[in-house]
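agent: user wants the structure for Ribosomal protein S18-alanine N-acetyltransferase from Amphritea pacifica. delegating to structure tool.
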Amino acid sequence: MSDNHLRPLKVDDLSQLSELQTLCFASPWSETQLHTYLSGQRYRCYGVWQERRLTGFALLSTVLDEAELLQIGVRPVCRGQGLATELMHYVHEQLHNDDIHRNMLEVRRSNEAARRLYLRLGYTEDGIRKGYYPSGNGSEDAILMSCNNLILPSAR
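agent: tool returned. relaying C-alpha cells verbatim.
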C-alpha cells in the first residue's frame, strides 16, 4: 500500500500549490489564477501528498460529462516514483464518480514520458495542434489525446 495521500485540493492548499507550480513549470500560473481553479464550481483540483507536503497535482476543467486536464505536475525530486500514474488513477476515479465520462488533454510532442503514461491509461491520440507550445526553438506541437473510459484498468 502507498504512503501517499490523495485528495481534492482546497483553497487552503494555495500556497503549496503555487510553490509546486514554480518547481514544475517555467511559466507557472499566478496565485490569482490558481485560486480561481481551487474555488471554481466547474474545476476539479486533486493533489497527492507525502508527509504533509504536496508532491503532485492535477487541475481540470469540466463541462457537463467531459473534463479537460489543464495541468499535471510532480515535484521534480519525486519524479519516477509512479506518482503521476497514481494521481491519474485517482483523477479517473473521481471523474467517474461525478458521472464525467470523457477526459481530454494536450501534451507536448517532446514529452515522451507523459505520452507513454497517457497511452498506458487508455488515452488515444486524436490530433495535433501545430506550434501550440512556445519552446526554445520557437514553438512545439501539442498532441491532443482523450480517454472515453475513465474506469480504472483493474475494474475493466
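agent: one observation worth passing along. The helical segments are 14-24, 31-39, 83-97, 112-120.
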